[in-house]
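TICKET: design request
STATUS: open
ATTACHED STRUCTURE:
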């Protein structure tokens, strides 16, 4: 069960309201790398987890992320205090309120629809979506995704810290950022506590393809390093010689049922290209300066010129 403690995980001291900054902070409230996404990611993974250690870890971190959601949401609420009251009470002159909100950089949606309260959207007003959670119920895949999610969240906090000079906000964001570092460490440990954690899942890779590096982007700028060259890699530079890699003919085929094969043959015949013709088209009739080379209607092999005089006449009348 969940219980609520009225004290925040970290004290929020905001020097003065700043609606523009509040909008930026929403990125970590309802954004892709924000606290709600993190909490839901670990909570749902924890519910489905069978390993006692990972379940405990996921539930601990999920609950801490909800506490972070509370901290960042409280920062948003404090930064919006003045604007929220002005919107609600309508005491300012209309023009003055319009100017105040316009100059604050708050989105119209945040102001008009959500009234300046913390809303589950990102800094551009895009609503939170469960699509931010990419769990696959396979710990060796999910833990890697969690590690990446924590490192993304750390970076977004770093950027938010760089856009404010409010010492109280800087301090609280510094705490939240640091917790994402700690979470990343826990997830790394949990991943390596699984003895065979690479490759993810159960099926092994096909041995003869596992060490191949395919140099598909060639030309100036080709760089060799440990990621594509050296003892771990069988590097392929001559693509035309070695493809298809399985030694087959490189075509795609399927065994069709007799009925389907017949219909397919009819369809192919109906839409077949005639490579022997050079037809006159609307492009030729309407061609003006800049049209490039066009088809000469008098030339042999252009079979469609019966239609041309009428079309040319129509074109001349335009
Ligand atoms: Mn967090
Ligand atoms: Mn975290």
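STATUS: resolved
RESOLUTION: sequence designed for all positions
ATTACHED SEQUENCE:
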């Amino acid at each position: 069960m969940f219980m609520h403690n009225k004290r925040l995980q970290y004290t929020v001291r905001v020097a003065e309201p700043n609606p523009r900054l509040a909008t930026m902070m929403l990125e970590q409230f309802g954004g892709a790398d924000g606290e709600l996404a993190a909490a839901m990611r670990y909570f749902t993974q924890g519910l489905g987890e069978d390993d006692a250690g990972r379940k405990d870890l996921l539930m601990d971190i999920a609950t801490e992320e909800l506490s972070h959601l509370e901290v960042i949401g409280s920062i948003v609420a404090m930064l919006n205090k003045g604007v929220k009251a002005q919107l609600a009470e309508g005491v300012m002159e209309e023009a003055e309120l319009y100017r105040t909100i316009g100059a604050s950089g708050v989105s119209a949606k945040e102001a008009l629809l959500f009234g300046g309260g913390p809303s589950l959207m990102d800094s551009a007003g895009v609503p939170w979506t469960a699509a931010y959670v990419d769990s696959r119920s396979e710990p060796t895949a999910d833990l890697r995704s969690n590690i990446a999610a924590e490192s993304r969240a750390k970076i977004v906090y770093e950027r938010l810290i760089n856009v404010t000079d409010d010492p109280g906000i800087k301090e609280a964001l510094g705490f939240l950022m640091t917790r994402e570092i700690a979470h990343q460490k826990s997830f790394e440990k949990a991943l390596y506590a699984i003895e065979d954690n690479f490759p993810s899942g159960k099926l092994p890779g096909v041995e003869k393809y596992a060490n191949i590096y395919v140099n598909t982007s060639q030309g100036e700028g080709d760089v060799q390093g440990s990621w594509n060259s050296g003892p771990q890699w069988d590097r392929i530079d001559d693509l035309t010689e070695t493809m298809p890699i399985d030694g087959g003919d490189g075509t795609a085929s399927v065994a069709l049922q007799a009925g389907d094969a017949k219909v397919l043959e009819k369809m192919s015949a109906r839409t077949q290209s005639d490579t022997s013709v050079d037809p006159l088209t609307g492009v030729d009739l309407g061609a003006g300066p800049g049209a490039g080379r066009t088809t000469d209607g008098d030339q042999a092999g252009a079979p469609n010129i019966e239609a041309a005089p009428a079309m040319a006449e129509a074109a001349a009348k335009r």
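CLOSING REMARK: The beta strands are 212-214, 234-236. The two ends are 77 Å apart (CA to CA).
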